[in-house]
Amino acid sequence: MENDPDAEFYIPLIWQGDGAWPSPGYSTRGTLYGVGGIPHAQWGGFQEIVGGGGSTMYNSYINMYNQLVDDVSPVEMLVGLGFDNNGDLLVQANVELTGDITTTNNKIVYIIKWHQNAEYFCTVVGYANEDFSLTSTGETGTYSYSFPMNAAWEIEDLTAVAMVQTYSGNHAILQAGQAQLTGLVAAIGSNVQSGPPSLAVDFTSVSYPLTGIESWEWDVDGDGVYDYTEENPTHMYDTPGSYDVTLRIGMEGEYNEVTIPGYITVTEDAVAEGVVSGVWHSDLGPYLATGDLLVKPGNLLVIEPGTEIILEDGAEFLVKGQLIADARDSEMIVFRTESEWTGIHIKDSMEENIIAWCEVTGATASAIYIENSDCTIMDNLIHHNSGSALGAAIELLDVMDIEIAGNLIANNTSSGLTGGISMTNCFPSIHNNVVVNNTAGTAGAFSIKQNSAPVIVNNTIANNVGVNGAFLLFNSQPTLVNCIVQSEGNVFAAIASTPTVMYSCLSGGYTGEGNIDVDPMFIAPSEGYGSEFDGMTANWQLLAGSECIDAGDPNVIYNDLDDTRNDMGAFGWNGFPDYGLTDTDPETIVPAPLEIIAYPNPFNPSTNLSFNLSEAANVSLEVYNIKGQMIETLADRHFDAGNHQITWNADNFASGVYFLKLSSGSENRFQKLILMK
């Protein structure tokens, strides 16, 4: 009926009860009318039609409309839609009474409806009401209400509705009106409005109309000087304070301006909650998360080495944008709790995330959960986490290319699935990890399900406890090479699965080329099996004389760092990091770290980028903006061993924060760059 020319006074509103956008006030309106069936249509607030009817519904509706269209209302109303000084949607109604109102308990109702598509052309997405006090002929009043703007809405698809209705008796609607935005209207949106320094804010012009605007001028720090002239700029706030933000837009010689006082707040303390973005610094920590954290799509959060994050009250650290927590070759990043938190959960991220040289402990719903995302999980301490239906340490779902390497995964507990790593429909590379003293109701170390095919190379898997052994395999085909797996029960509980195992030491033995069944002769293993025994301070290196030394795959691609034949276990091949938890073998060879240094930094407009290679390698050097978008490739070629220097001239780029990514083989390093013009 929305297009029926005979229904010019018809204002359709649909309260949706479910789906992606359930309407606010759904239950309240349903209770008001005593809804007993769906669909339930109300006309004028007191005439109703319940149920379907197919093609007969139109005739029923038009009949109701025709009964009401000629009624004379005692209320005249003019409705407008705009933005208030806080950037929220403002619904305003100017009202004049042309007759006396005899009903009682009257209210004015404010509504925002959204034209999502042809099926949902009038879904209620904003709903509020207040008392309506006018009763006598000639009285006038102005009523208004502000609704927060949702980034998912297109402003041109929104309509404001206001109506006067009695909440007693027959609930009659005395008058209603609607309006959309008109003219040139400046409006401000952003990915985040508050947080600790350094706070990265992506500003968005949500002005009207959506097309045709020719100029944008932004004053983002309230100093009266325009800082940016692009449509959607990004600004980094490093100084605590409250900042007014102004946007001035122009089109065809006309201009409109809006200023929102105190729109951005940069806190002095490191308390974080809600949407987060920017850079977290070690000298501001510890950061305290008192509620859920969200890195939104398009946002980037960089956590610097040495930063401590304390998450409380069951907080979830959810990443849908990009997280770079990379402290390799520096002081470790710590994620912990003094009560409980649910873990770092990366879901549907389209970016390359990094969790490296971090301590993650105390989570109750998988310490690191990766779903349909890319993430490097390298050189982390993942310990004393718990769970039930997920892997207590790491949970993977629908991930294709992910690297899990150099992690110590110890003393995690799951009442249901596994204390170590769980995966469903995944193809990860898992190498040089120590997975020890985990306890679970199903599998102590690994749960591998639903067409997963991980490649598990040079891992030490020992002293884990699970009802079904170390590994649960369901409809999957894992490959184990050069591993040590010691279990007091079964190694594999395999359902519709056949693991490929080569050059590995398995308790109980296993068929396959190069496999052995011996005591690995760890230097100082934990005193027993399961999470009640300390697997972290145990030493899982091999004593001289161990039959696992030089017993791995003889292919030179698996050679140890000293170029001898591969030793089985986590300390062979690419080696295992020294976490400083035990007395390490002085002869353990640690590879030279891959480092990148920028000088000067901050810079204008050029900086020199230096890196050192212990051996010849292919190297790529890329620059990313604060949104995680790659903006320039500085190098992508073969370099000889030694020191190298490349200059980046950023004369064509705006002031701000950038990130340099150095990649060589499986290693990546990031360096923050600050361009100040």
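That was protein one. Protein two is written in the same sequence-then-structure order:
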Amino acid sequence: MKKYKNGIFYISTIGFFSALMYWVVVMGADLELGRAIVVPNTGLSQWEEFIHSLTYNLKHPLAILLAQIVVIILVARLFGWICLKIGQPSVIGEILAGVALGPSLIGLYFPEFSANLFPVESLGNLQFLSQIGLILFMFIVGMELDLKVLKNRANDAIVVSHASIIVPFALGLVLAYFIYDTFAPEGIQFSSFGLFLGIAMSITAFPVLARIVQERGIHKSRLGTMVITCAAADDITAWCILAAVIAIVKAGSFVSALFIIALAVLYVFLMIKVLRPFLKRIGDMHTSRENLSKPIVAIFFLALLASAYATEVIGIHALFGAFMAGAIMPENVKFRNIFIEKVEDVALVLLLPLFFVFTGLRTQIGLLNDPYLWKVTGLIILVAVVGKFVGSALAAKFIGQNWKDSLTIGALMNTRGLMELVVLNIGYDLGVLTPEIFAMMVIMALVTTFMTGPSLDLINWAFKSRSKGVPGELNQLTQYKILISFGNPLGGKTLLKLAHAFVRKLNGRASVTALHLSPIYELNHYNSREYERESFAPIYEESKELNQKFTAMFKPSLDIDSDIVEVANEGDYDLLLVGLGQSMFEGSILGRILGFTGRIINPDRILSQVTGKESLFESSLFHERTRQIIAKSKVPVGILVDKGLGEIKKVFIPLFSEEDHFLIQYGQKLINNSESQITLFDAIGKIKNQPATKEAIRSIEQTAPNHITLMNERILDEEFLKSQQLMIISIDSWRKIVDTKSEWLANIPSTLIVVNH
């Protein structure tokens, strides 16, 4: 009776109170007598009423906004992924997504869809939400600036940075002189038009530049530090100039703007001298996630919003206030890292794509319907590139950089990205830029950002700088080279232990490299070094215990699968060891249909399924990343299924086919280096008669006669499997035991699945 008690109570409670509610409703109907109750009669059937209600709900402002957000995020992610695949920053794809959803593409070819998804009356909500995203983004940009680096390297950086501002600014002003009559809006003074064109030419996208530097692996080099410092100085200077330009445009003249500038100076003084010390005291007391409570977080968010509000009221735009609030946050690295992580996902993933699309809705490339307009667009791009690229490069050369580094600095400083769109939208809102000029400048922002990667590749090629993914000391001739690639540091410890078992007695004639790649969008200036240290700390501890030297490689990555394979192939390793990843959706029908992986939706997998390269309902043996590594790698790959790997003294190698004899070489290495006991299992009863296998076994027996055994039993004892510490098996044999749901799976030890390329 006990097991039915909860069910009886549930049914009794629901039944009794449902009956009570029904009785109250029936009795309440009698109270309606004499109250002239009117039941609306629309003349529609129940189905028509439902359709009418559904249509009304679809057109509700909140429903439209939510639909817009869903479409925007999906399209932005898709375009961003495409750009990553061709080696471009994802921000270019997100900008292109905005342009595609606007009147330049969707609005042109599918006007009804565009009108329903982005009705004019809904754009106000989209704009305000995108502005919130921009405020949070500028707050992050401010926090990512390392003012200590600026103090230490101010001289050289300021020379290059200010040259990269004044040269394009002056050229932009000259350009404005020639196009003012044709393209300036009615009623806009030349000074306003010229100043905005100048500041638009001189902006550098600090966040995009920082990520390109990280992705290229030069963020720790002298050049990387130099260019990051230049970009930081550029950001601060350009935003101060922009604030002054906005003040002049709003005031109508420079003299009138002096009042606004005076208020802005007072605001900056209060932020630095009053608010910054106060926030520093709070930040110093709350440097961990545990004691960074909601009330404390609220104080910093209030500081952000109050700063943005103050600059908006003063007349120099809320975004400057957000940027300033980020810049004065406590300099404690842990604190900034925690706070950036709290804000970044909402700002960059959810809200910022709304700004790209709102910009795209304003960008009407169709207005450029005359060859003359495209010539002007080309001229704008030329002026922008000459001013920023050439100006920065010449300044860098003047302060003593070589030509390669100077040109690299110029190419990176020419990156405009999102920051350019921010400036252009401010100019558009102030009425300084016409739709035609706005479209031309958006194209310029795309082109100058897009050309950064190819420019860097061209510079490296021209100066014959071969960037290798493998440290120089590993290029020396070694007997055996192992690359271990890990995501989880604890998994990295186990992989190092396994690698050590293969090379322990090679006495310097072997090398082990530990590779950890991190998605570049998860790293920023403040957390990259800390993240690297935390990722490798357990590996260093294990290496001391094992007395196993290794080379650490840490790299921000746009495409982890491809980068792992590239490092392995270019380094000519003898073995690549990886852990068995597992996706939260892997193996489910939903996961297989949508291509879900740890990256949520993997277009690579969807494409493979559509083209027939991968069966839709195929049993998923491995995580998507593991499958990509297996497919692209040119070196042998070992996938470790870790079930608490400890000692590697008892090793079991099943041989299911004649092709599996290559596994014996791994057993031999374990015998030679770790004195392991190897048991070969002849699963088909034919391996013992194969000449190659017999020769390999005989060779081992001559040097270590008591360390290898050949089993011919048809059925493996459960106790035997449990007594083994490691199983080494080929990928084809692993597929067989998984597909046949072999009883082995319940009892096997840690397993190394080997793919022999």
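The domain at 141-346+370-462 is CATH 1.20.1530.20 (Na+/H+ antiporter like fold). Keep this in mind for the problem set.
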